[in-house]
Amino acid sequence: MALWNQPAQEDNGEKPHIEHASPIAPVTPSHAPREHTSKDRRESVFGPGVASEGKSEGDADLRIAGRFKGDIQVKGDVNIERGAHLSAKISAVTVTIAGEVEGNVVASAQVKMLESGQIIGDLKATTLTVAAGSRMRGHVEFGWSEAQAAKFVNGRAHETAKNGTNQ
Prior knowledge:
Elements: E1 43-46, E2 51-58, E3 61-64, E4 67-74, E5 77-80, E6 85-97, E7 100-102, E8 105-113, E9 118-120, E10 123-130, E11 135-137, E12 140-142, H1 146-149, E13 152-153, E14 156-157
Parallel strand pairs: 1-3, 2-4, 3-5, 4-6, 5-6, 6-7, 6-8, 7-9, 8-10, 9-11, 10-12
Antiparallel strand pairs: 13-14
């Protein structure tokens, strides 16, 4: 009787031919390590079956795959998984959206809209990455420093004209 994954020996006296698999090279991560990640920072997870309401704040990363209603203010990253439904105001370093968000999103670094992501609300970030297929309804600001954004009022540039009036 042959054991699992072993060929049966034949009675003709020949040794069975055993093929050896070539060693597999280790896989390197496809993304660069984040500079702001500290070894002490952890990730909290609200799984697909979890519904939560209230305020979530802290220094850790947050991953949401279920439902959340309230405010999120973290000094880490927020990942909203496909199938997640949030009715929340979100403030974080980086926000990755693959689920549905109803509320305003503010990221001090980056917002990544994945192809299944949806936002109904305003978005403000230093950089914005949008995948084909994602959807958004709201006001978007990205790429502006605080000093540059202060030059604009109600979406229009205000500069002092030669006659001394604002336009």
